[in-house]
């Protein structure tokens, strides 16, 4: 069995880019929240639940994942790094599904805040949310949550 660093080292560039992208998204969201609260926002807050991705992003992810399976050669390393980077949009899409699913709930802020805190600390929720984004891309989960809820709560 190979040492862990030999397995992880080839994808470190992709991990750094994915982390940078995530930090940029979080900083943008925090800046927008501050601008809204201080009345200095140039634009209204986006509806996170309305986030969508073009189908080509999923196709690109599938192609890059296929390249990653080629092994430790140059194409495999490029594919593995691109796969890591291309999961970030699906993380955002997964969070959009969670935002859509929690619309209208009384404890929405607590649930979303807790989820964001847990994903900042642990890895496995990130994997689950990326998977949720992939499922959304293929099957449109948000449309199901947009349907009227029993009792008239939307």
Keywords:
single chain; 154 residues; mainly alpha; globular
Word description of this protein:
The chain is mainly α and 154 residues long. It has one domain (4-152). It has helices at residues 4-8, 12-38, 55-68, 74-86, 88-102, 108-121, 124-139, 141-146. The longest helix is centred in the first third of the chain and has 27 residues, at 12-38. The protein is globular.
Q: Count the strands?
A: 0
Number of helices: 8
What is the element string, with H for helices and E for strands? Answer: HHHHHHHH
Structural class: mainly alpha
State the gist of this model.
The chain has helices at 4-8, 12-38, 55-68, 74-86, 88-102, 108-121, 124-139, 141-146.
Fold blueprint:
Elements (H helix, E strand, L loop, with lengths): L3 H5 L3 H27 L16 H14 L5 H13 L1 H15 L5 H14 L2 H16 L1 H6 L8
């Amino acid at each position: 069995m190979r040492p862990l660093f030999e397995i992880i080292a080839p994808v470190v560039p992709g991990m750094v880019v994915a982390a940078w992208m995530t930090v940029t998204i979080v900083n943008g969201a925090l800046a927008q929240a501050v601008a809204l609260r201080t009345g200095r926002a140039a634009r209204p807050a986006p509806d996170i639940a309305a986030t969508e991705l073009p189908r080509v992003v999923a196709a690109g992810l599938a192609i890059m994942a296929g390249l990653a399976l080629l092994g430790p050669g140059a194409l495999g390393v490029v594919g593995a790094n691109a796969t890591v980077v291309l999961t970030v949009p699906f993380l955002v899409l997964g969070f959009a599904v969670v935002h859509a699913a929690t619309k209208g709930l009384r404890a929405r802020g607590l649930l979303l805040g807790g989820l964001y805190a847990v994903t900042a600390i642990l890895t496995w929720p990130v994997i689950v949310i990326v998977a949720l984004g992939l499922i959304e891309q293929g099957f449109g989960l948000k449309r199901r949550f947009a349907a009227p809820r029993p009792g008239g709560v939307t």
